[in-house]
Amino acid sequence: MASSVAHVLIVTPVILLLDQHREMKKEGNLVDELVTENSAGIGGSRFERSTKELSDNKSSKRFFNVYLAAVAFVLNWIWEVAQISAYETAEKSIVESLIFCTLASVVDVLAILAIYGVTAFLFRRHDWKFYLITALFGALIAVLFEKIALTFGWWSYREQMMTVPLLGTGLLPFMQLVLLTPVAIWIAGKMAQNTEK
Question: At what angle do helices 94-122 and 44-83 cross, to 10 degrees?
Answer without folding.
Answer: 140
